């Protein structure tokens, strides 16, 4: 979080993803980094990845090896990169992160693509484009995702924000509203223009009946993002009414 205070991620991407997932000691960090190094070593020794200079061929080799040897189960809520490294399970986010880390080791400029509710990878090289889908058995990205009007290339810090957003949603579902708020704030630090953590943050405050705090936060957010006023109109009116009711009770 200290690293992200200037809006930029300076530490290695894999370290940041592990910290966001919950790695909190140097000893644990080194354990997981060794797991990543072992995957890279196995790919180097068990495939022809180093026998070609073509990035698309390299990425295809890595993808196929991971699908056969490191990706054993797809679970929608399994965002934690630790689970992907430990027990070979994941979702679109954790598998895309693992693929990105390994591709970069082999000097492949892989991109993470976000569409609402999903993440996949893309590589453009020598006017060729290849897509990589980690959560479908055929590895093929659906046309609806490939040509989605809201498709965008993600920055590394936005991938970190997705990890924190998953943690915030889970905490909210467990009625751990303070914990959820903290992870919403962390998600917003990494991706301040995403309104999904804002919606969840307001939900947490409303659940705790902190209506004034929710209204104050929404006002501040809309002052920085006036284009979102329309989408938050109903929430704004609801919070106004709830705050008035609380004021009347005090009177």
Polypeptide structure, described:
There is one protein chain. The chain has 251 residues and is an alpha+beta fold. The protein has eleven helices and six strands. It has helices at residues 13-21, 26-46, 55-69, 81-87, 92-105, 143-146, 156-173, 177-190, 196-207, 211-224, 233-250; strands spanning 73-74, 89-90, 111-115, 118-125, 128-132, 152-153. The chain has a four-stranded antiparallel sheet with strand order 5-4-3-6, covered by helices on one side. A two-stranded parallel ribbon has the order 1-2. Strand 3 and strand 4 (118-125) form a beta hairpin. Helix 10 (211-224) packs antiparallel against helix 11 (233-250). It is elongated, with a radius of gyration of 21 Å. The N and C termini lie far apart (42 Å).
Main sheet properties: 4 strands, antiparallel
Kindly name the structural category. Answer: alpha+beta
- Beta percentage is 5-15%
Helicity level, as a percent range?
A: 55-70%
Short structural summary:
With 251 residues, the chain is α+β, with helices and mostly antiparallel strands.
Topology (elements, then pairings):
Layout: H1 13-21, H2 26-46, H3 55-69, E1 73-74, H4 81-87, E2 89-90, H5 92-105, E3 111-115, E4 118-125, E5 128-132, H6 143-146, E6 152-153, H7 156-173, H8 177-190, H9 196-207, H10 211-224, H11 233-250
Parallel strand pairs: 1-2
Antiparallel strand pairs: 3-4, 3-6, 4-5
Helix pairs in contact: 1-7, 7-8, 7-9, 8-9, 9-10, 10-11
